[in-house]
Amino acid sequence: MPDVTTFTDVAGTPRTPAQLLALIERIDLAIYNLLSDPTKAAFRYRLGDREGDRGGYLLWLLDARRTYQAELAAQPLWQATPCVVVTD
Questions:
Q1: What is the DSSP secondary-structure string of the chain?
Q2: Nearest-angstrom CA–CA distance, 67 and 31
Q3: pTM for the complete prediction?
Q4: How do residues 60-83 score in pLDDT, each as one tens digit?
Q5: Is the pLDDT of residue 35 over 70?
Q6: Residue among 62, 74, 78 nearest 20 (CA)
Q7: 24, 65 contact by CB (below 8 A)
Q8: Fewest beta carbons less than 10 Å away: which of 13, 31, 34, 88?
Q9: CA nearest 64: which of 16, 18, 12, 29?
Q10: Could you tell me if 58 and 32 are in contact, meaning their C-beta atoms sit under 8 angstroms apart?
Q11: What is the pLDDT of residue 20?
Q12: Looking at residues 23-31, what average pLDDT do you find?
């Protein structure tokens, strides 16, 4: 598949609250596993073209969690639905 060179034909929809909660849960699990397994302390982590140690990876995960948490908080608490009026 060739690289995308323009966003003209790229479409998408905003993430749903359920999708955001699932992303936050995956990040929380990654943080928990990272901190609870002492053997992972010496690992090097690669994020795209960046590489770092456990502390750097933890900071990246926390930043991603804050981003998704803010996106979730910005969602409306309710959605408007069409109102049906019934008259006699």
A1: -PPP--STT----PPPHHHHHHHHHHHHHHHHHHHH-GGGGG--EEETTEEE-HHHHHHHHHHHHHHHHHHHHTS-SS----------
A2: 15
A3: 0.69
A4: 999 999 999 999 999 877 766 677
A5: yes
A6: 74
A7: yes
A8: 88
A9: 29
A10: no
A11: 94
A12: 94
Task: Quote the CA–CA distance of 83 and 12 in Å, as a whole number.
Answer: 28
What's the CA gap between 38 and 21, in Å, rounded?
Answer: 27
Q: What is the CA radius of gyration of the chain?
A: 20
Residue with tokens 């982590």: 45
CA distance 49 to 51: 7
Burial 54-81 (b: 16+ CB within 10 A, else e): beebbeebeebbeebeebbeeeeeeeee
